[in-house]
Amino acid sequence: MRSSRFMQMLLAVTMLLSACGESHRPPATRSEAATAMPADAELAQIYDSSCKLCHANPAAGAPLTGDQGAWAPRVQQGADTLLDHAINGYNGMPPMGLCVQCSQEQFLALIAFMSAQSIPQ
Ligand code: HEC
Question: pTM of the predicted model, to two decimals?
């Protein structure tokens, strides 16, 4: 009797865990976001001291670095809108993403890096 109760509990826990996995982002995306860095050293430095604070932090409400699904509809807005939102701010996204010295090219490169896709003009 005892062992079948244990099996029932095990089953319940397994079901709970798998239900959890379905409704949440897989943890792989979070750890990827925490460790991903642009290949270019200058961009990596900018990313590390600005964008990363929010875009690698699931609590910030920002689309996470490397989360192509979260970025896809944003990227579809095109380069002009993305730049406008990066430079002038957009809801929780602060103007210039805290990088006041960033150029438009750098913003686009950072967005392409974070979204893991190329930005249509
Ligand atoms: C203080 C937090 C914070 C920082 C720092 C930050 N972002 Fe964001 N960003 C956000 C949040 C939150 C959103 C989601 C806004 C929304 O959709 O409501 C966002 C969204 C965006 C978007 C999508 C806008 C759209 O049109 O959907 C782009 C592009 C972006 N960020 C670029 C950057 C870049 C580039 C940097 C670094 C230079 C950066 N962000 C730094 C918080 C931040």
Answer: 0.81
Quote the ligand 1 centre to 82 CA distance (angstroms). 9
**Tens of pLDDT along 6-28?**
667 666 655 555 544 444 444 44
**70: closest CA among 107, 41, 106, 33?**
33
Sign of dihedral through CA atoms 17, 18, 22, 27? positive
Which atom from ligand 1 is nearest to the alpha carbon of 73?
27
- Domain 28-115 listed as CATH 3.30.70.20: no
Cα(first)–Cα(last) distance of the chain, in Å?
66
Sketch the domain layout of the chain as residue ranges.
28-115
Which residue is closest in CA terms to ligand 1's atom 9? 93
